[in-house]
């Protein structure tokens, strides 16, 4: 049965846009006009068969009526509400707004993400200015020269009986410090004028790489053969404008991809996964860690989500799903199985989770963490966790999760670290 509370409203809106009378739609769908009237006012549930007939009569997809606003648009509207905390917003009517005015909803959601991106750009540029080693040195040189000139000038201005030899020495210092200041300021201006455009971009290197991988479908057939990552990068025109940091991250990703492809060839991997989609089983067959299998599945399979995080919990790679949005900035939901796996390296986790929202979705999640000592015990261990997500149609109680605490609509959560702007939603 279609369970969406605003299903009837969407049918009515669609019918109105097409200029159909209620009786005409009822006749095409094979129901009475009075029954359709009750449906359009959300007073009757609709069977899947009837919903298919209505959608066909309205010339639209069944999902467009049953699901209403896309999860990404709803998530964007919540983001917009979070940014406008000074104004009260009707959060309980987000889906109605998205369903009735999809164009405006999409525009507002896109603008909210653009604002978030611009705010992130300011943070990124501020961080670069604060941690750029050359810029820090250049500014220190300028300030040092200014301080020296000021000190010498104060001595000359406030002291009347200065020995001529000392006066000449101070004048010499003023000249040399002035020249030093001029050279430092000129070098600083030249540096700022010639900062590569890549360093002033709005996207972080990680975002550049993720956008590039998304455009490639996360799959590199050439690396399944004998192609070398360095050569692929050299010939990648769609990565030509990327920053040096992004290219370094891309090279590391491709090197790991190539190694995974060598250990788990594509065709055997796909065949084993189709036979039984169990990462631990494939890990045993190929003799690799479970995290490697999750990475390989995240690259080869379609309609999957994939996440990597380091020991700090920071997401180092994202492959989102439409109905499982991943935070671009900040931490994810503390109830995600990937964080549980992070505390138990070598112990794979399988779980069913339900993403919070007006359109809850169930996903099968596999997560695992791995300890490595790439430079020996003296250098310390490196821990990395991976999580693979697939839409799930199975049974069993799911674990309720969200995107992040700030925009999570769950009224009660044992792991919440900060209040949600959506606390009135259930």
UniProtKB/TrEMBL annotation:
This protein's UniProt keywords: DNA-binding, Transcription, Transcription regulation
Keyword DNA-binding: yes
SUPFAM superfamilies the record matches: lambda repressor-like DNA-binding domains (SSF47413)
Keyword Transcription regulation applies: yes
Entry's Gene Ontology molecular function annotations: DNA binding; DNA-binding transcription factor activity
GO CC, alphabetical: cytosol
InterPro entries: Cro/C1-type_HTH, Lambda_DNA-bd_dom_sf, ScfR_C, TransReg_Diox_bact_type
Any one Pfam family match given in the protein's UniProt record, by short name: HTH_3
PANTHER family, per database record: HTH-TYPE TRANSCRIPTIONAL REGULATOR (PTHR46797), HTH-TYPE TRANSCRIPTIONAL REGULATOR SUTR (PTHR46797:SF23)
Name of the protein this chain belongs to: XRE family transcriptional regulator
Organism per entry: Haematobacter massiliensis
């Amino acid at each position: 049965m279609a369970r969406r509370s605003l299903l009837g409203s969407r049918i009515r809106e669609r019918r109105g846009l097409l200029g159909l009378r209620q009786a005409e739609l009822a006749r095409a769908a094979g129901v009475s006009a009075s029954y359709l009237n009750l449906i359009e006012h959300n007073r009757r549930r609709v069977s899947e068969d009837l919903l298919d007939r209505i959608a066909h009569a309205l010339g639209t997809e069944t999902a467009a009526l049953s699901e209403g606003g896309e999860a990404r648009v709803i998530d964007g509207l919540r983001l917009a509400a979070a940014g406008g905390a000074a104004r009260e917003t009707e959060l309980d009517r987000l889906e109605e707004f998205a369903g009735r005015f999809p164009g405006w909803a999409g525009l507002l959601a896109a603008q909210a993400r653009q604002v978030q991106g611009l705010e992130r750009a300011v943070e990124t540029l501020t961080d670069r200015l604060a941690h750029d080693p050359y810029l820090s040195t250049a500014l220190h040189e300028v300030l040092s020269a200014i301080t020296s000139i000021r000190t010498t000038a104060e001595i000359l201005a406030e002291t009347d009986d200065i020995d001529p030899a000392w006066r000449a020495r101070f004048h010499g210092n003023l000249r040399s410090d002035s020249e030093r200041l001029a050279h430092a300021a000129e070098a600083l201006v030249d540096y700022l004028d010639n900062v590569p455009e890549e360093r002033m971009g709005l996207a972080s290197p990680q975002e550049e790489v993720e956008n590039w991988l998304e455009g490639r479908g996360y799959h590199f057939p050439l690396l399944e053969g004998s192609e070398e990552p360095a050569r692929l990068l050299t010939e990648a025109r769609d990565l030509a404008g990327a920053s040096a940091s992004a290219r370094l991250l891309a090279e590391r990703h491709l090197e790991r991809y190539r190694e995974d492809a060598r250990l788990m060839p594509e065709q055997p991997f796909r065949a084993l996964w189709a036979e039984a989609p169990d990462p631990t089983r494939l890990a045993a067959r190929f003799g690799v860690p479970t995290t490697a299998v999750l990475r390989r599945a995240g690259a080869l399979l379609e309609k999957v989500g994939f996440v990597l995080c380091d020991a700090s919990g920071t997401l180092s790679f994202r492959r989102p799903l439409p109905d499982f949005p991943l935070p671009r900035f900040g931490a994810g939901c503390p109830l995600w199985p990937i964080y549980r796996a992070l505390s138990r390296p070598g112990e794979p986790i399988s779980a069913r989770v339900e993403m919070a929202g007006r359109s809850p979705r169930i996903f099968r999640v596999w997560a695992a963490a791995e300890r490595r000592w790439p430079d020996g015990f003296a250098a310390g261990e490196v821990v990395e966790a991976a999580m693979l997500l697939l839409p799930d149609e199975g049974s069993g109680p799911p674990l309720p999760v969200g995107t992040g605490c700030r925009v999570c609509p769950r009224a009660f959560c044992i792991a919440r670290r900060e209040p949600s702007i959506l606390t009135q939603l259930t």
